[in-house]
Automatic annotation (TrEMBL), chain A:
Its job: Catalyzes quinol oxidation with the concomitant reduction of oxygen to water. Subunit II transfers the electrons from a quinol to the binuclear center of the catalytic subunit I.
Subcellular location per the Swiss-Prot or TrEMBL entry: Cell membrane
One Gene Ontology MF term: cytochrome bo3 ubiquinol oxidase activity
Protein's name in the database: Quinol oxidase subunit 2
Main location: membrane
CDD domains: CuRO_UO_II
Nuclease recorded as keyword: no
Database matches in Pfam families: COX2_TM
Catalytic activity: 2 a quinol + O2 = 2 a quinone + 2 H2O
Enzyme class (EC, first level): oxidoreductase
E.C. designation(s): 1.10.3.-
Domain Cytochrome oxidase subunit II copper A binding: 133-245
Species in which this protein is naturally found: Halobacillus alkaliphilus
TrEMBL record, chain B:
Pfam family, one: COX3
Source species: Halobacillus alkaliphilus
Protein name per its UniProtKB record: Quinol oxidase subunit 3
Gene Ontology biological process terms, A to Z: aerobic electron transport chain; ATP synthesis coupled electron transport
Keyword Transferase carried by entry: no
From TrEMBL, chain C:
Known function: Catalyzes quinol oxidation with the concomitant reduction of oxygen to water.
Organism in which the protein naturally occurs: Halobacillus alkaliphilus
Signal peptide: none
Keyword Membrane: yes
Subcellular location field: Cell membrane
Protein name, UniProt field: Quinol oxidase subunit 1
Cofactor details (free text): Binds a copper B center. Heme A3.
Length: 329, 201, 645
């Protein structure tokens, strides 16, 4: 037991060290610490800034703790009589010190927190060598358990994936057709909620080309785990080309088709050359009950979703529906 | 648990049990304040969300509400007199004033039920909209408290007849007195922040 | 309703659960009948109003709930160990994390602590029971029946699946039809009533029933933390009561509070829930702080360092805990200003928390640390909790929280505070006060094994979760992607380590019951500092034959010096005690019936049950039972034999 005891204490002392190692070692791998845009970069900087303070606290406390536990063990060989003072009841000076220092740390953490909070409410600032661009507006709407991305100016809409140009702020307009969800693309920045009947604005930006994972990060029922999407960040030229291709080639989104897609369930990727904003905006109070009025019965049904399944596994029945509706128009 | 009984002071405070119960009841009222505060906050947040149902201004009637307010305020006053009579040691005074309180409370309830039925005929029910849900819940919770209070007073009146004034019965009356005044205070808030504002806006 | 809709069907795991529940029930019934224990059960336990027995029943139920929640946890960790695991499907996983969270917070952590408070606090302040013993029994039965109502959802009707936070509109009638969510609402409502009553009860007890002359600033620190916790309960629980009632009205009576229709406002739920929910997390940590303070000062054989500062820190934390609820949804988009305010208020909590940590270290300074199992749990708490605390501060920085929120980083944080805080405290306190409760100690050797398995397992389980959270793994996903696998495997291994630790703990209880030496004195650890150790073991039902006058902190230390006891023969007077009664049990059983009816929307049953409850209340109102007196002779006899005089 004694040996384990000692081992454990060493282990404890190693914990903060391992934290540093893990943090620095995994820097390039952990999504949040691998930013691909200014928002995520700001947040990473803030996180690392705070980690230094936390490590300082952890080191101080662990050191003091180890010292006390080792030194004042009752049966430590070589204990001295003066090592025991049962009547000590406090010490004002030291108590003031260890109140004031944490307080100062809190202030040191508050300042950049508040500063970044206000920054994140606006489009990311442009770097010196770049020209200022209007943010690209994308409505990101969720419905059990899928994502609709509507580009009002381009008049296109995608399901479960989106394309964005690099180095241009994206102004997401977040809303939900039913349960509360959250848009999260860790490499581009933190999350924000999508809610029915109200609209949240969320700025993100990519400054590197690539394909990034995005997802709903707020639990909303059976299909939650699979409610993911991919972000294709590409050069403005490629992006423009994708837009015009979609405008030319994708089918138009009819209300009927949209209502079908809205029904609870999983769906593959789709693209359309018009947006559902033409008839409903779930971010307005009037759009709040749109989905529930149409699919009330379906919300209670189970998919019996298992881990290896994804949208394709649920497409059979829906494909049949698709064909029928395709025949209609 | 000491059972020492003091020989002076108000009857309800003479036993340790009485003192503990009364303090406990005060704390309970503290919890009740939080409960009603939450309901008021909910009401305030949902104010104006009437959807397709009529707005409160269309339905609230100043006359009914004023009568209700008058009845409940008076009942609080008569309840106070009852407790005063109890302190004087008058079983009869306590009983009679409590009965007056009871009748006023019943009258209040009658009007509230009439009011609720009336609103529902006009298309405003618990189900019609967020606003009306919160209205019926807030006013209804108060009404439910009044109902329970009335039942409680009846039980106590029976016990009073059986046992007369003892430290225990007087403690019980004292406590329900607190409860009744509390409901009165809550009603004043409902009257002003629900009815008056609802009628004006 | 068809029978196959009533019972949950089609799942091997659930069938297994049903069978084991049936077997346990039958064997319990059999043993009770065979050994003719029914009368004993009724007289000694079901009708008791003794705070000590009620405390023990709380603790035993909490251990059972810890087992249930723990099994849930193992199942989740198994499912998450590898990508594409097919142990649980999405729906089952959702149900299990929902019941796990709810059971652990509401039916494990709180009852465990309330159990310890029940047993310890009256003894610490020199009271013969709590202020309202009848109400105390009522609280316990409301908790137990509430817990049962929640737990039967496993086999009857289906479990809730919207998370312990039950956010609307997901948890509303439209998106979560069926009885599952109703079980959550009514189970919590029922047990919440009891918790509120407990809060009132302990406030009055501590404010009014302290031993002669004991001043507030001489109370043991665990009593202090109980008092402050009671304040939080009284001011926070009514909010939960309302929130649950509103959702119940929504789901069962068609109201429109949190709905997507009728201009309802779903996000109001999140606000109400966390206005209760954040104070709630402090309800389960402050008593834990109290326990650690007691254990540390007992086994460091030293007065608590900075007693006054400790008390003020608790009060400050309690006050602040009502001002930070928005930090649970910084991402709702309330704007930079609101988030700034709540960020700062959140981080401020770390200051008094830090003060407490340093004061514990100060207590260890120049002490004589005796490494018993109780002390080891308390020592392990300090560094572990610090990790939970600093990551809490990181979460409190709203703009960083946008990246942490709803990820495994958050999961790691709250397990670091809840397990290293609350669970360690429950174990520490149980081991510490065990001899007072049961007349023998828990086996120390087994205790150490259980400790090491549990503590190491805990760190192995939850430390990696900070990193997998930073790697983008959200909470509540039922399956992982390959990138997250290595850390998840480690985590699962750790979880099973904790499982082994818990199993050894339970085994230690059985083993010690059989083999431990019986206690001979009341001061089991030879270093008791507070009044509970002044009583003989087993504690007589009236606790104190005579009440000592208290004029210092650590009252028992002083008594020992002065050679005084709580049995001064010539001062013994008859003691007034409350009578046992079956009413609380019966009343809450009817409440259970009513709640069950409401879950299935069988109004006849709901109303019938409620009427029966009203009848019970009327009976209670007419019940003028004055209790009874324990005569001087009996007290002397009891004390002499208990003290081996
Ligand atoms: C230093 C003190 C603490 C700070 C600054 C702090 C901060 C936070 C913050 C900001 C969150 C929300 C994070 C998010 O949802 O993104 C959170 C969540 C949580 N905290 Fe703490 N915390 C502290 C201590 C505690 C303690 C002592 C407990 C309980 C024993 C606790 C239990 C929880 C729980 C259960 C959650 C998650 C609830 C959920 O979403 O299910 N925290 N904490
Ligand atoms: Cu909202
Ligand atoms: Cu919180």
């Amino acid at each position: 037991m004694k040996n384990i005891n000692r081992l454990f204490k060493k282990g404890l002392a190693l914990l903060p060290l391992s934290m540093v190692l893990l943090l620095s070692g995994c820097n390039s791998e952990l999504a949040v610490l691998d930013p691909k845009g200014p928002v995520a970069q700001t947040q990473k900087d803030l996180i690392l800034y705070s980690v230094y303070f936390m490590l300082f606290i952890v080191v101080v406390v662990f050191a003091a703790f180890t010292y006390m536990v080792v030194k004042y063990r009752e049966n430590r060989p070589g204990r001295k009589e003066t090592d025991y003072d049962p009547h000590m009841h406090g010490n004002n000076k030291i108590e003031v010190i260890w109140t004031v220092i944490p307080f100062i740390i809190v202030i040191a953490l508050s300042i950049p927190t508040v500063d970044t909070l206000f920054q994140l409410e606006k489009p990311p600032e442009v770097e010196a060598n770049e020209e200022e661009q209007e943010p690209l507006v994308i409505h990101a709407t969720t419905a059990d358990w899928k994502w609709f991305f509507s580009y009002p100016e381009e008049n296109i809409e995608t399901v479960n994936y989106l394309h964005i140009p690099t180095d241009r702020p994206i102004e997401f307009k977040l809303s939900s057709a039913d349960a509360m969800t959250a848009l999260w693309i860790p490499r581009l920045g933190g999350q924000k909620y999508n809610m029915a009947g109200m609209m949240n604005t969320h700025y993100l930006e990519a400054d590197e080309e690539g394909v990034y994972k995005g997802r709903n990060s707020n639990f909303n029922g059976e299909g939650f785990t699979k409610q993911t999407f991919e972000v294709y960040a590409e050069s403005p030229e490629e992006y423009d080309q994708w837009v015009s291709e979609t405008q030319d080639q994708a089918p138009e989104l009819t209300q009927e088709r949209y209502d079908e897609l809205l029904a609870p369930g999983l769906t593959e990727e789709h693209e359309f050359s018009s947006t559902h904003l033409a008839w409903v905006n779930h971010g307005n109070p009037e759009g709040m009950d749109y989905a529930i009025n149409r699919h009330f019965e379906k919300y209670g049904e189970l998919m019996h979703l298992e881990s290896h399944q994804d949208a394709e596994d649920f497409m059979d029945e829906e494909n049949n529906d698709d064909h029928e509706s395709d025949r209609d128009h | 648990m000491s059972s020492h009984e003091l020989k002076t002071g108000p009857l309800e405070y003479r036993t340790e049990e009485g003192r503990l119960s009364i303090l406990g009841f005060w704390i309970f009222l503290g919890a009740e304040i939080v409960l009603f505060a939450t309901l008021f906050a909910t009401y305030a947040v949902l104010f104006g969300r009437t959807a397709d149902a009529p707005s409160p201004g269309e339905l609230f009637e100043a006359k009914t509400v004023l009568i209700m307010t008058f009845m409940l305020l008076t009942s609080s006053f008569t309840c106070g007199i009852a407790i005063h009579e109890m302190r004087r040691g008058s079983v009869k005074g306590l009983r009679n004033w409590m009965i007056v309180t009871l009748i006023l409370g019943l009258g209040f309830l009658g009007f509230e039920i009439y009011e609720f039925v009336h609103y529902s005929h006009e298309g405003a029910t618990l189900q019609s909209s967020a606003y009306w849900s919160s209205f019926f819940t807030l006013a209804g919770t108060h009404g439910l408290h009044v109902t329970l209070g009335i039942g409680w007073v009846i039980l106590l009146l029976i016990q009073l007849t059986q046992r007369g004034l003892t430290p225990k019965t007087s403690r019980k009356f004292f406590v329900i007195g607190l409860y009744w005044h509390f409901l009165d205070v809550v009603w004043i808030f409902i009257f002003t922040s629900v009815y008056l504002i609802g009628m004006v806006v | 309703m068809q029978l196959d809709e009533f019972f949950v069907t089609g799942e091997p795991l659930i069938y297994a659960g049903m069978v084991s529940i049936a077997l346990v029930t039958i064997s319990m019934l059999f043993f009770l009948t065979y050994y003719k224990k029914w009368g004993w059960l009724w007289r000694e336990w079901l009708t008791t109003v003794d705070h000590k027995k009620i405390g023990i029943m709380y603790i035993l139920s909490a251990l059972a709930m810890l087992f249930r929640g723990g099994v849930d946890a193992m199942m989740m960790r198994t499912q998450l160990a590898f990508p594409n695991m097919n142990f649980l499907n999405a729906q089952h996983y959702d149900e299990i994390f929902t019941t796990h969270g709810t059971v652990m917070i509401i039916f494990m952590a709180m009852p465990f602590l309330i159990g310890l408070m029940n047993f310890v606090v009256p003894l610490q302040i020199g009271a013969r029971d709590v202020a309202f013993p009848y109400l105390n029994a009522l609280s316990f039965w409301s908790f137990l029946f509430g817990a049962m109502l929640f737990n039967i959802s496993f086999v009857i009707g289906g479990s809730p699946d919207a998370g312990w936070t039950s956010y609307t509109p997901l948890a509303g009638a439209a998106m979560s039809p069926g009885p599952g969510q109703n079980f959550y609402l009514l189970g919590l409502q029922l047990s919440g009533i009891g918790t509120l009553a407990t809060g009132i009860n302990f406030m009055v007890t501590i404010l009014k029933m302290r031993a002669p002359k004991m001043r507030m600033f001489q109370m043991p620190i665990f009593t202090w933390s109980t008092l402050i916790t009671s304040f939080i309960i009284v001011f926070a629980f009514p909010i939960l009561t309302v929130a649950l009632a509103l959702m119940t009205l929504d789901r069962i009576f068609g109201a429109q509070f949190f709905t997507l229709t009728g201009e309802g406002m779903p996000m109001m739920w999140a606000n109400l829930f966390w206005m209760w929910g954040h104070p709630e997390v402090y309800i389960v940590i402050l008593p834990a702080f109290g326990i650690f303070s007691e254990v540390i000062s007992a086994f460091a054989r030293k007065q608590l360092f900075g007693y006054k500062a400790m008390v003020w820190a608790i009060i400050l934390i309690a006050g602040l805990s009502f001002l930070v609820w928005v930090h649970h949804f910084f991402t709702m988009g309330a704007g930079a200003f609101v988030n700034s305010v709540f960020s700062i208020s959140t981080m401020l909590i770390a200051v008094p928390t830090g003060v407490k940590i340093f004061n514990w270290l100060g207590t260890l300074y120049k002490s004589k640390i005796n490494n018993t199992v109780a002390m080891m749990w308390a020592l392990a708490f300090i560094p572990s909790f610090v990790i939970g605390g600093v990551t809490g501060v990181m979460l409190g920085m709203a703009s960083a929280d946008y990246q942490f929120h709803n990820t495994y980083f958050l999961v790691a944080h709250f397990h670091y505070v809840l397990i290293a805080g609350t669970v360690f405290a429950c174990f520490s306190g149980l081991v510490f006060w065990y001899p007072k409760m049961f007349g023998h100690k828990l086996n120390e050797r087994l205790g150490k094994w259980s400790f090491w398995f549990f503590v190491i397992g805990f760190h192995v389980c939850f430390f990696p979760q900070y990193f997998v959270g930073l790697d983008g793994m959200p909470r509540r996903v039922f399956t992982i992607i390959p990138e997250w696998m290595p850390l998840n495997i480690i985590s699962t291994v750790g979880a099973f380590g904790m499982g082994v630790g818990f199993a050894i703990f339970v085994f230690a209880i059985l083993y010690s019951y059989r083999y431990s030496e019986r206690e001979k004195t009341g001061d089991s650890w030879d270093n008791g500092r507070t009044l509970e150790w002044a009583t003989p073991t087993p504690v007589p039902f009236y606790n104190f034959a005579t009440l000592p006058h208290i004029d210092s902190q650590d009252a028992y230390v002083k008594l020992k010096q002065e050679g005084k006891t709580t049995f001064e023969e010539d001062e013994v007077e008859p003691i007034h005690m409350p009578s046992n009664t079956g009413q609380p049990f019966i009343m809450m059983a009817f409440m259970f019936v009513s709640g069950f009816g409401l879950v299935f929307e069988w109004m006849w049953m709901a109303i019938g049950g409620l009427l029966a409850v009203l009848v019970m209340m009327i009976i209670r109102s007419f019940d003028y039972d004055e209790g009874f007196h324990v005569e001087v002779d009996e007290i002397k006899r009891t004390e002499r034999s208990a003290r081996r005089l």
